[in-house]
Design goal:
- The chain has 287 residues and is an alpha/beta fold.
- The chain has a five-stranded parallel β-sheet, with helices on both faces.
- The chain is built from ten helices and five strands.
Length: 287
C-alpha cells in the first residue's frame, strides 16, 4: 500500500527541539529553518513509522515561524494537486504571540487549508493546544489573555474537526505536556521525548482507524531535560535577543493586555462602607 503524507505547519513540525545529533544544547531559534536542516521531529518520526508497513512519500512543507496565513498562502500551494492520504496541519501558536492576531482570519485560512486538503482525499491530523503559559511559567496577568487567544485558535480547530473529521489530539489530555522533560530548553518546542510522544500518539490513533503500522514510534529515549545552567545560558544567548527582536511587536501587545486585565479589577465596585460618623447620622435619622 502506498501512502502520500504531507506536513504543514511551523517550527514544531519542522522538528525544532529534536536535533539529529541528539544534543540538547543546539541553537533552538530555528530561524528560517526548513525540514531536514539539522532537525528530525515528530512528523519525520511518524513518516518513518508508517514506512515500516507501507510505501510512503513524505513531504514536509513546514517552516519555522510560520503563521496560519503563511501556511495557507505559501505552504498549501506548494503541495501541488496530487491526491493525499494523510495531511498534518498544526499551526497557530505564533499567531497568538503577535499584535496582529486576528481570530477571524485564522479561522478562514484554516478552513481553506482543510477544505483543499480533504478534497484531495487527505485524513487531517490536527491538535488542540494546551496552556502554553503554564509551561512558560508566565505571570497570571499575561497567562490568562494568552490562553484566551489559544482558545480562539482551538475553537477554530474544533470547527475543522467537526466539519472535516480526521484525528485531533487534545494536548491537555497528556499530563506529560506539563513536565519539563517534554520540552526543549526554550519550553516552546518539544524536546526529543515530546516529539516522540506526538508521533506515537498519532500512530496509535491511525492504528485504531485500521491503518497497519508494524513499528510504532518509540517513546523511551535518552533525552534529559536541560539543566538550570543550560536554561540560564539559553536565556542569555537566545531568549533575551529573541525578545529584543520582537520588542516592537510583542511588548506593546503585552502591555495592552496587562492594562486590560488590571482595569476590570480596579473599576469593579466594592462594598459600600460608610465612615463611623455617617453611621451615627443614619442612626439619628432613623430614630
Amino acid at each position: 500500500m502506498s501512502l502520500h503524507y504531507v506536513a504543514l505547519g511551523d517550527s514544531t513540525t519542522v522538528g525544532v527541539g529534536d536535533p539529529l545529533n541528539g544534543s540538547s544544547t543546539t541553537d533552538l531559534s530555528g530561524a528560517g529553518a526548513r525540514p531536514g536542516e539539522g532537525w528530525r521531529g515528530w512528523a519525520s518520526l511518524l513518516a518513518d513509522s508508517l514506512a515500516s508497513s507501507h510505501r510512503v512519500t513524505f513531504s514536509n512543507f513546514a517552516t519555522s515561524g510560520a503563521t496560519v496565513p503563511v501556511v495557507a498562502t505559501d505552504q498549501l500551494p506548494a503541495t501541488g494537486d496530487d491526491p493525499i492520504d494523510i495531511a498534518s496541519l498544526i499551526v497557530g501558536v505564533n499567531d497568538t504571540l503577535r499584535s496582529t492576531f486576528d481570530a477571524g482570519r485564522i479561522r478562514e485560512h484554516l478552513q481553506q487549508c482543510a477544505e483543499q486538503l480533504t478534497a484531495r482525499g487527505a485524513l487531517l491530523l490536527t491538535v488542540r493546544f494546551h496552556d502554553h503559559g503554564k509551561v512558560f511559567g508566565l505571570p497570571r496577568w499575561l497567562r490568562r489573555p494568552l490562553w484566551q487567544r489559544i482558545e480562539q485558535v482551538n475553537l477554530a480547530f474544533d470547527d475543522l474537526h467537526a466539519r472535516y473529521g480526521g484525528i485531533r489530539l487534545d494536548m491537555a489530555d497528556y499530563p506529560e505536556v506539563y513536565r519539563r522533560d517534554f520540552w526543549s530548553v526554550d519550553r516552546l518546542h518539544p524536546g526529543e521525548r515530546g516529539h516522540r510522544t506526538l508521533a506515537r500518539a498519532f500512530a496509535d490513533e491511525l492504528a485504531v482507524r485500521g491503518l497497519r503500522i508494524d513499528v510504532r514510534p518509540e517513546v523511551d529515549c535518552s533525552y534529559r531535560p536541560p539543566s538550570r545552567w543550560s536554561d540560564a545560558v539559553w536565556l542569555v544567548k537566545e531568549g533575551v535577543p529573541w525578545v529584543g527582536r520582537r520588542a516592537n511587536d510583542l511588548l506593546p501587545w503585552a502591555a495592552r493586555m496587562a492594562v486590560t486585565q488590571l482595569r476590570p479589577m480596579r473599576s469593579a465596585p466594592g462594598p459600600l462602607t460608610l465612615p463611623p460618623s455617617t453611621h451615627s447620622e443614619v442612626r439619628r435619622i432613623e430614630a
